[in-house]
Write a structure and sequence with these properties.
alpha+beta; four-stranded mixed β-sheet
């Protein structure tokens, strides 16, 4: 297997961004900061005050499940790597490169761990995220390749996280834990702490990785998906597909959703009763798509999930799972909605809006950011100002 830690550290130290990489970094920064600010009054953001600044900002950025996703590794790259580099770098001039180095390490580790790692119940944002945060923070601190390798090894003990946390406060908090662990590891490496880089390869095997780690391609292979709806990425496709039907929800007698089994792996709540559970419920996705003009923040409150009309539609959903698939957009989703008139309307979709195959337009991204920051006046968010903006609205020490 070789030394995964040394290979990744060497790549991160030598990496220099292309213009396309820098454009991705700037979009990721704007999206991540906006989503974190949208959660400024969320109870989990207050609870996360016990974490360091990076961990607190990451928990806030993830609790609404509106942050971007690296599709092939099924990991939320930016909500880990943006807070990690901002927490250690402040207004340092090269934070975009540090973010991309951390994101590249995290995406490559997640890709190498593969779908089997996610399917086994690991939360790849936590497992690969701790090492991605360590790499990004180490680059932001100016460490050379051997220092980055040490930081990766020091992050290994905290490289965990499980999907059973989905639908609870623990999901976003364990992302905060990963960021805190990565920042701590980078600072310890900068202070002279020692560690064996082979620990990364040992950990990789223990959590089911078979390798190899591919060091080629752009900073973030395959790009990032930007969410249109504030919920699990596995719900983006069913919501956008069903919302296009424009049927009267009161006339619906049956909803049949046909999709590859891989695409529902994180959707563990079949009869949700809270807003957080609704973010991981295929059945509730169908309900909000038919009931609400837009499945935004208001659609994922406890009250919205408990609406009698929503619960009635949830009870009318049937799921037909086709075997196979190895990512959240495997195959396509077909929704068949039966009406009291005897008519059945159908829709099929593969790529939802915001996916790498259907990236958001600048106007769509601007509209999302405006929605997230309503009532605030953060001004233009850049790599040199973002930490100050997050600190002012979310707290966090210097």
């Amino acid at each position: 297997m070789g030394s995964i830690g040394l290979d990744l550290a060497g790549w991160a130290a030598a990496y220099r961004p292309s213009p396309a990489d820098l454009a991705l970094a700037d979009r990721a920064l704007a999206d991540t900061v906006a989503v974190a600010l949208a959660a400024r009054d969320h109870p989990v953001t207050a609870l996360a005050a016990a974490l360091g600044p990076g961990g607190r900002w990451a928990a806030a950025g993830h609790v609404l499940d509106f942050d971007d996703l690296h599709m092939s590794s099924t990991s939320h790259v930016s909500v880990v790597c943006v807070p990690a580099v901002l927490a250690v770098g402040g207004a340092a001039p090269d934070l975009a490169r540090a973010y991309l180095a951390g994101a590249g390490v995290m995406a490559r580790l997640g890709d190498a761990l593969g779908w089997s790692h996610y399917r086994a119940g690991w939360h790849a944002t936590g497992t690969a995220g701790a090492l991605g945060a360590a790499a990004g923070a180490a680059v932001a601190l100016g460490l050379p390749a051997d220092g980055i390798a040490t930081a990766l090894a020091l992050a290994v003990p905290a490289a965990g996280g499980v999907q059973r946390a989905f639908g609870t406060d623990a999901k976003s908090l364990q992302v905060g834990f990963a960021v805190d662990a990565g920042v701590r590891a980078a600072r310890l490496a900068a202070a002279g702490a020692g560690a064996d880089p082979a620990a990364v390869s040992a950990w990789f095997g223990l959590v089911g990785g078979a390798g190899p780690v591919d060091l080629g391609g752009p900073a973030v292979p395959g790009g990032l998906a930007i969410k249109v709806y504030p919920c699990c990425y596995a719900l983006q496709r069913p919501i956008s597909a069903l919302a296009s039907l424009a049927v009267d929800p009161a006339a619906v007698t049956r909803i049949v959703l046909r999709t590859p089994e891989a695409t529902v792996a994180p959707l563990i709540h079949h009869r949700p009763t809270t807003g957080l559970q609704g973010k991981f419920s295929l059945e509730y996705a169908a309900a909000t798509a038919l009931l609400d003009p837009y499945s935004g923040f208001d659609a994922f409150t406890d009250a919205a999930v408990r609406r009698p009309a929503a619960q009635e539609l949830v009870s009318r959903v049937e799921t037909v799972l086709e075997p196979g698939g190895d990512w959240l957009l495997a195959g396509s989703l077909t929704a068949a909605v039966s009406l009291r008139t005897g008519e059945t309307v159908e829709v099929t979709q593969q790529f939802p809006p915001g996916s790498p195959a259907r990236p958001p337009t600048p106007a769509e991204l601007a509209a999302k950011i405006a929605d997230c920051t309503a009532g605030l006046s953060p001004g233009p968010v850049t790599w040199s100002t973002a930490a100050s903006v997050l600190r002012a609205e979310l707290g966090g020490g210097a």
